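We keep the chain:
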Amino acid sequence: MMRRFAMLLIAGVALAQTTPKSMVEAYDAIADTILATKQAEYSIVAAILDGHFHGAQAYHNSGQFDKAAAEMALFGTEGDNAIGGIRKKLLDGGHHHHSDGEAKGTYEPGFVIIKRETKTAVLNTVAAYKQAKSAEDREKAWKQFTELAHAALSP
């Protein structure tokens, strides 16, 4: 009797050392969801940047240069204060799209697409655009901005 009890006890311990399949499947599904949200975050930020680029382009083409410059700056900062608030919320919750890149100084905290050096280059280009003394200078700055924007949005 004692021997049978010991065998049952050993079998029970052995069974308890495996995670139930349903729990593994649920956790795996959560992992897939977490990874998918990272791609979704990238896609929405790309759409925001695309919107600012096209807004800048429309204003530039219509001669509304101050509004074009504002859209260009929003491209460089990955959005306005409302987007910055969401970025802060994610950071406060422990979400960092590029934690390694932030640690190395490549990305600003919470930024998804625009690298630190790209942000600086875009904002310098915006300053040159706003301070342009001639249409030629403005077009030169605009061309520089479009090159930076296309490079940033190219995967």
